[in-house]
Amino acid sequence: MSSNSAPKVGVIMGSKSDWPVMEHAVSMLERLGVAYETRVVSAHRTPDLLFDYAKSAADRGLQVIVAGAGGAAHLPGMVASQTPLPVLGVPVESKALKGLDSLLSIAQMPGGIAVGTLAIGKAGATNAGLLAAQIIGLQDATVRSAVEAFRAEQTQKVLDNPDPRPEPEAE
């Protein structure tokens, strides 16, 4: 987002290797005109940074945090424990268990520490960006209009292409 817009959404991930998934959250935020910031914040390698980031997020103007993590996937839950802001967790596919470990780690939060858990991988990151925009849209009519336009476009794509068969190739 442009530097003259204060970020409303923080998009964080546990490792730089999570970027190929998390860039889809950023792409959706950009498409919908939501200002964001993004960075690596590791629950295991930089716990002090994680606590500082989460505790200062609201004072810095963030309204939602999207946190992507693979493997043990502690990042979303640890961030949620340190901020009153909504935290959306994106399970990143792991090599060992194909992201199921990440999904369960993020989804199985104890009562009292809420993390909204999305699907594993690209779809989850895309929807996390969309859901973050919907949350921002509760108070920002411009973002709400962008979300409504996006949804109308999705509807129109289906209506314009009702035939499920592939189009014949030109000879």
TrEMBL record:
Keyword GTP-binding among record annotations: no
Family matches, as InterPro entries: PurE_ClassI, PurE_dom, PurE_prokaryotes
Protein origin, superkingdom: Bacteria
Enzyme Commission number(s) from the entry: 5.4.99.18
Keywords of the record: Isomerase, Purine biosynthesis
Recorded metabolic or biological pathway in which this protein acts: Purine metabolism; IMP biosynthesis via de novo pathway; 5-amino-1-(5-phospho-D-ribosyl)imidazole-4-carboxylate from 5-amino-1-(5-phospho-D-ribosyl)imidazole (N5-CAIR route): step 2/2
Binding-site residues, substrate: S15, D18, R45
Stretches assigned to the PurE domain: 7-158
Catalytic reactions on record: 5-carboxyamino-1-(5-phospho-D-ribosyl)imidazole + H(+) = 5-amino-1-(5-phospho-D-ribosyl)imidazole-4-carboxylate
Described function: Catalyzes the conversion of N5-carboxyaminoimidazole ribonucleotide (N5-CAIR) to 4-carboxy-5-aminoimidazole ribonucleotide (CAIR).
Protein family: Belongs to the AIR carboxylase family. Class I subfamily.
Protein name (Swiss-Prot/TrEMBL): N5-carboxyaminoimidazole ribonucleotide mutase
Organism: Vreelandella boliviensis LC1
